[in-house]
Amino acid sequence: MCVVLQLSWLKANLMSFDSLYRCIILPVVEIFISGLVKLDFFDLPIYFPTIDEVRQVIEEEEGSFTLETLKTIKMGWDANLQEDVDFVVDSKMKGELIAKSIRAVFETLLSAEFGEDIMDELFSRYAKLVAKLAELETLEHTNVVVSITKDP
User: Fold this and answer.
1) Contact criterion met (CB below 8 Å) for 129 and 23
2) pLDDT band at 81; cut points 50, 70, 90
3) What pLDDT digit, counting tens, does each position of 19-57 carry?
């Protein structure tokens, strides 16, 4: 049996993700200050493994798996939008795309803390901040592709 895994947000590109992470905090603070939500304490637990940590976890399962492939692929958040060379992707579109991706990952955590009613507003503000960030830097993420086979 062969298993292929794809993991995102490796420490290799932490700077880009750190900027995106900070952008999600700003709308939370704005919404708190405006009185739309009450906040006593908020923690968003995130861990970014290194490629060596991924390799070590697999290899520590001695006798269980054989590591066939371990690759990193660095790509822009807007990679899927750039397939058509005649299509120009502006920063607003990048902000909206990234906001949708981040929302898919974090909405459950955030709505548990702040409620579902505020999510559209929060991610709308987030998309605008990310659009501004996209004008200043290239926003990339690193995918890790792992292929393992189960040992007999």
Assistant:
1) yes
2) low
3) 666 677 778 777 777 777 777 777 777 777 778 888 888
β-sheet bridge partners, residue 150: 65
Phi, psi at 144, each rounded to 5°: -110, 125
In angstroms, rounded to a whole number, what is the distance separating the alpha carbons of residues 59 and 35?
A: 50
Distance CA 75, CA 62 (A): 32
Q: How many CB atoms lie within 10 A of CB 67?
A: 14
Please name the residue that has the structure tokens 């901040």: 129
| 77 or 100, greater pLDDT | 100
The rounded distance, in Å, linking the Cα atoms of 102 and 21 is 9
| SS3 of residue 44 by DSSP | coil
How high is the mean pLDDT of the chain?
78
Phi, psi (5° rounding) for residue 42? -145, 130
* Percent helix / strand / coil, the chain, rounded to 5: 55, 20, 25
Q: Please tell me the pTM assigned to this model.
A: 0.72
CA 118 to chain centre: 20
